[in-house]
Design a protein that fits this description.
Blueprint: H1 3-10, H2 14-41, H3 44-60, H4 64-79, H5 85-103, E1 119-121, E2 124-126
Antiparallel strand pairs: 1-2
Helix pairs in contact: 2-3, 2-5, 3-4, 4-5
Length: 135
């Protein structure tokens, strides 16, 4: 879903959505780091909790791709296996970076230059290219 479509679906002006997205990204990147640490320690419960947090916030903000990844990570972590979790954590990181790109800034508030390629995940083909029309 494009940024403009998300704003329309949520009934928000672009600037309002961007502010929410900045707050979301701040927390999501911290949760992601905690999830990566949890995976390294084999702590699937903490990994599932971090994924659940991201999943809930992504759902609220209509961020479908991030929601799908977080939900998949949460379910895998709850099952206790680590198969595919590292790859999905990387995919989640890419989606968060893609959101940064969509709102037009990186950690320093500067525009990101590149966009990530399309890929298939969990059997669902998705176009993950994001643009920010009007900027």
């Amino acid at each position: 879903m494009e940024l403009e479509e998300i704003c329309e679906a949520l009934g928000l002006e672009k600037e309002e959505f961007v502010e929410f997205a900045r707050l979301f990204l701040d927390v999501a990147f911290k949760d992601l780091a905690s999830m990566e640490d949890a995976l390294a320690k084999g702590d699937m419960r903490s990994l599932a909790e971090g994924a659940h947090s991201i999943k809930g916030a992504a759902s609220t903000l209509d961020m479908e791709e991030i929601f799908i990844l977080a939900r998949s990570l949460e379910l895998k972590a709850k099952r206790g296996g680590d198969e595919g979790i590292y790859e999905e954590l990387q995919a989640l990181r890419e989606e968060l970076i893609r959101l940064q790109n969509a709102i037009g800034e990186d950690d320093c508030g500067k525009r990101l230059r590149s966009e990530l390629p399309k890929r298939e995940l969990s059997g669902e083909k998705r176009d993950e290219k994001r643009s920010c029309r009007g900027q």
